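Subject: sequence -> structure tokens, single chain

Hey, anyone have a minute? Need the predicted structure for the following. Not urgent.
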Amino acid sequence: MACIKKLKEDIGLLKKLFPSGHDLVRVTEATVDEINVTLILPNGEAARICANIAQNYPRVAAIWCSEYEEEELGHILQQLSDEKENVHILMQIHQLIVQYFAFLCIPIPGELEQLISPRHIVEEMDEGQGSDISNEDEREQQQPSEEESVAEEEDDEEYEEEDEDENDGMIYDISEFDSNNEPTTSSARDVFPEAEQETLDKLNILARADRVANRPQLGSTSASDRLMKELKDCYRSIGYKSGLYSLSIIDENLYEWEVKVHAVDSDSPLAQDLIKLKERDEDAALIFRASFKEDYPMSPPFVHVKAPHIENGYVMSGGALCMELLTPSGWSSAYSMDAVITQIGCTLVKGKARIGFDVTPSYTQAKAQSSWSGLVKFHNKSGWYTPPKSDG
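Reply:
Had a minute. Here:
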């Protein structure tokens, strides 16, 4: 089968990029049934991870497991196993490394970019959509007879117009609501804390109201669906649940987020500054604004600091962040917002960020956008500098 051939090619690429002697990621054993990956952690331990590939791959994701007991890793592996869209093994390994390394504040290996080239993904998606049936007679048997087709059309005729009206222009998962616009109580539905569920419900209701009233809708269907998924994933994440960060939607606009980072590496000067800041205001945090375009996740979010005033930490004068991850050249559509938020905290610490207590923050989105545009132009010409491992 073509999908088996493609899977073998992907395995070959994995072994080439991450051999047994790689510093951070090692593909120790890989077959069409099972792929074993070892992550080398900062404490010297090795997290051995196994992906069991099902017979109907790439229609379904691999089943991920690990004997290394760590809560965040377990959460990521469960997400990968439950994934319905990004099921391809190269994309999933890319997501695993990005999210877990961001959590651990480990530099992402440069080889990772080669895992998710558009050619790899498009080819694999095409192969996953076909039928496994190769015999033409068997295919004919799968087709309904002319009489059956006519009967089905008659049965569906009276509902057809209603279904088209109901689904046309859908942005969010309106199936979560009944005919009275009230959330359903299906057991299959995710259960979030009251405040978070209220936010999700409100966004869905607003989207439905705009559609019914034939009002222009924000962004695009694909971007809105992805942002709703990212929002839910953030609510489920360990970082959010443990209070490392929080987020809210600005003016009920799914494309504008306010993110508050409440904690960073406890051994860093920035952590001590945060403690001092919270002595003045217990609700104080590092506040960022994330703005998304209608082609998200193909383009990165624009993230800038709102408050407090931050010195160093790769924060530019206008509040933009000097991070390759947040530029078109360094961005990947596989990156999750939970990983991005975690990586921002790590970047501030690595850049020796400090809070300017005596400086009133004057960050604006316009200033940040201007400095970010200059940053992108500069690095497009000169490239990005990767510090040696001895610098952290």
